[in-house]
Amino acid sequence: MLAKRIIPCLDVQDGRVVKGTKFVDLRDAGDPVEVAALYDREGADELTFLDITASHEGRGIILEVVRRTAEQVFMPLTVGGGIRTVQDIRDLLNAGADKVSINTAAVRNVAFVSEASDRFGSQCIVVAIDAKRVSGEGPARWEVFTHGGRRPAGMDALEWGETVQAHGAGEILLTSMDCDGTKNGYDLELTRRMSDRLQIPVIASGGAGSLDHLADVFERGRADAALAASIFHYRELSIRQVKTFLRARGVPVRL
Amino acid sequence: MIAITDYGMGNLRSVQKALERLGARAVITGEATVLREADKVVLPGVGAFKDAMAELDARGLVPALREAARDKPFLGICLGLQLLFTESEEGGLHPGLDVLAGRIVRFPSASPSGGEKLKVPHMGWNSLRFQGGSPLFSGLSNGVHAYFVHSYYAQPGDASVVTAWTDYGVTFASAVMRPPVYATQFHPEKSQAVGLRMLENFINL
Question: Has B189 been annotated as catalytic?
Fold first, then answer.
């Protein structure tokens, strides 16, 4: 049986791990390669690096981080953040990444998703969707945001998921902007609606704060994978602890 | 020396890094002469079947790969497993290396038994049910998980070549062998300790 995946995410800035709450208020917390090796030992199913380096000059640093990580960690590695061109993707894959996650560049030009998946295969193209719940009357809706959640894209998140799937995305990394950083749990309704609607796997992100939240996102949100940062990063929960709990709840995991 | 076949498809570096980590000398090569000189050959790859065969053909690697698959330990990984078979249904019917009899087919998008919708690609960690005794799996216990990413799978003409089965809506051949040929649908180079053990077993063949 296919196991549900637990994916720790490291926000990396200028080669160092940081984690923001709602994308501001960053705290420095170490060497990404060391943290990656620790998660590898603990039984993480994959790793994600989100490069939040702002300056263009600093962009080369992530390649070195990926290179060093891939030398000692033998599990799937996804890198996202600031990917604009086919050459950016090629550089990351050559450095040792297995997948790249594209957000703003896909919103700007959806043909970039097709181009990337034609060139490198859809298995390595993850489209990241930052979604925010639209308040108001009527059935629940979510809108797509870009630029770290600051800019509305004027699109419906579920429809956008379908669009990028049609353009060759291999997976969706779905972040709830409402839940991210709150530790109050994933947006289960958003996750479930997206997962039910799409044929490709959905990775839920944003809001993990407890063991129950992780069980809920698989059982009720029907996520294929769950991404979390701070709970693992600050050692509130270990990956093994999460997986042991999930197995006891009947969620298939790899232990 | 282990030759990792480079035909412009997929990430070869991770296979090389894993083999090097285990102490082997591994070179990435697109040259038929290097494949002929190598002690062992690895055929990795991700992407479309037809494009892969076209690339192998364009680089003149098909005869050398067929020879290698007859003469020396040979490891096919993911698309590299699929290419070993007679033909694939991916994007129309296309001939493969025909080292093993069988066809590559796509996962059904719904489980035949009804029930939950199946996501395609089959992506993530799934368990292996070993059949027979493959030296590749020496030291590993039945039921270990390995990392998969694929939308198509092999239906071998001869089920006795299957060394591991995996369930994903259907039960499919996740590893096959006909010495000196070994092949896995999953990625040992991405399967942490379990995968490294398989690569070590391959190095020691």
Answer: yes
- Using the Cβ of A159 and the Cβ atoms of chain B, whether some distance falls under 8 Å is answered with no
Helix pair angle (A239-248, A32-42), 10° resolution: 30
A28 touches chain B (CB under 8 A): no
Domain B2-90+102-203 sits in CATH 3.30.980.10: no
For residue A13, what are its two tokens? 């800035």
Which parts of A73-208 fold into alpha helices (H)? 86-95, 104-108, 111-120, 157-166, 188-197
Tens digits of residue pLDDT in A30-54: 788 888 888 898 899 999 999 987 6
Q: What is the pTM assigned to this prediction?
A: 0.92
- What are the beta bridge partners of residue B173? B154, B165
Residue A226 belongs to what H/E stretch? strand A225-228
Q: How would you label A76-86 residue by residue, b for 16+ Cβ within 10 Å and e otherwise?
A: bbbbbbbbeee
Task: Give how far A135 is from chain B: nearest CA, Å.
Answer: 31
CA–CA separation, A197 and A2 (whole Å) = 20
Tokens 């603990």 correspond to A42
Would you say how long chain B is, in residues?
A: 205
CA dihedral A224, A230, A232, A237 (to 10 degrees): -100
Question: In chain B, what are the domain boundaries?
Answer: 2-90+102-203
Contact A201 B167 (CB under 8 A): no
Beta bridge partners of B127: B145
User: Active site residue: A45, A88, A130, A216, which one?
Assistant: A130
Better pLDDT: A150 or A225 = A225
